[in-house]
Amino acid sequence: MAELTLTTVNLATPDPPGLARFYHRLLGWEITAEEPHWVRLANPAGGVALSFEYDRAYVRPVWPSTPTEQQMMMHLEIRVDDLAGAAAHAAACGAAFADHQPQDDVRVCLDPDGHPFCLWLGE
C-alpha cells in the first residue's frame, strides 16, 4: 500500500487572510504562505498545518446542528492546560462561545466565520 500522510486541514472562508490571522493570534503559529485566496499556518511542532481557502458561497455553520441550517463539517480540538485562561485568550483573539456547552472540561468556541473549535482540558 502507498504511504499516506495527512499534512494540512483546510477551512473554507470568505476571508482567508482574516481567518488565518485569527488562528495565528490564537495558536501562535506563523503564516508561511499567503495568496489572495489561500493562506497557510505551519505547526511549529511539525504536525498537521492549517490553511484557509476562499469560498465565495460560504455559509456560516451552526452548532449544535439543526435540520434546517448549515451544519458544521468538522471542528478542531485544541488541548489546553488552563481552561479558563485559554478561554479568555480565545475571546481576546475574537472567538465567541457557543450557547450550548456540553461538558465542564471543554469550551466550545466559534471562530469569526462560525467554525466550531473545542478547547479541552488535558495533560
Automatic annotation (TrEMBL):
<keyword id="KW-0223">Dioxygenase</keyword>
<feature type="domain" description="VOC">
    <location>
        <begin position="5"/>
        <end position="123"/>
    </location>
</feature>
<dbReference type="GO" id="GO:0051213">
    <property type="term" value="F:dioxygenase activity"/>
</dbReference>
<dbReference type="InterPro" id="IPR029068">
    <property type="entry name" value="Glyas_Bleomycin-R_OHBP_Dase"/>
</dbReference>
<dbReference type="Pfam" id="PF18029">
    <property type="entry name" value="Glyoxalase_6"/>
</dbReference>
<dbReference type="InterPro" id="IPR037523">
    <property type="entry name" value="VOC_core"/>
</dbReference>
<keyword id="KW-0560">Oxidoreductase</keyword>
<protein>
    <submittedName>
        <fullName>Catechol 2,3-dioxygenase</fullName>
    </submittedName>
</protein>
<dbReference type="InterPro" id="IPR041581">
    <property type="entry name" value="Glyoxalase_6"/>
</dbReference>
